[in-house]
Design a protein that fits this description.
The chain is built from 2 helices and 5 strands. By secondary structure, it is α+β, with helices and mostly antiparallel strands.
Length: about 200
């Protein structure tokens, strides 16, 4: 009678022998599998998800606010300086106008005296008016505006204004023959040039 091999009992659990030391066990489906290593993990550095220090934008924002505050303060200081300079300039102008007007007060006083004595002596009136004129010219010279009414001097376009050309055999060509209106001041401080007639060139 032939003998058939007996099938193993399926209900019996698999006999697992002892695992040799150092041998790995096969992974089971119900345990998490190790994933790929994160950058920096091997070096001991925290990954991108790790909590780090405060962002740098906070420092930049603080620095920008400080600069804006300094800028506003500088603008305010500049505006205050401009206003103070304008007030000082207006004050200086007022002082200068007052000083100039005060310098001409004696001239007006002398004119008042000349008009008061107008009916007494005509000759005295002429002398009084001439003295007042000389006094006014002296005041202008003290203020920095000397009078120019010279004749026989070469024509100077910076000091003279030609209003006529005449034929004068006794005067060299290009010289001032007559002053019709005196000039006052020199250079940048010139009030007006002298209106003159000049000898005609041949």
């Amino acid at each position: 009678m032939p003998t058939y091999p007996q099938e193993p009992d399926r209900a019996a659990p698999d006999q697992v022998g002892p695992v040799p030391e150092g041998a790995g066990r096969p992974p089971r489906g119900d345990l998490p599998q190790p994933g790929p290593a994160r950058p920096g993990a091997a070096n001991g550095e925290p990954g991108p998800d790790a909590a780090g220090p405060a962002p740098a934008e906070d420092e930049y924002t603080t620095a920008i606010r400080e600069l804006e505050d300094r800028w506003r303060r500088a603008l305010a200081d500049l505006d205050n300086l401009r206003k103070r300079h304008a007030r000082e300039l207006e004050r200086e102008r007022a002082v200068e106008r007052s000083r100039t007007a005060a310098a001409f007060l004696p001239v007006l006083d002398n004119l008042e005296l000349a008009l008061t004595h107008a009916g007494a002596d005509p000759g005295a009136i002429v002398e009084g008016i001439r003295a007042v004129r000389d006094q006014a010219v002296n005041v202008l010279e003290l203020l920095g505006y000397p009078r120019h009414a010279e004749t026989g001097v070469p024509f100077d376009p910076a000091r003279h204004e030609v209003v006529g050309v005449v034929q004068d055999p006794d005067a060299p060509p290009g010289t001032v023959v007559e002053v019709l209106r005196p000039g006052y001041g020199d250079g940048e401080r010139q009030l007006r040039p002298a209106a003159v007639t000049v000898a005609k060139r041949e």
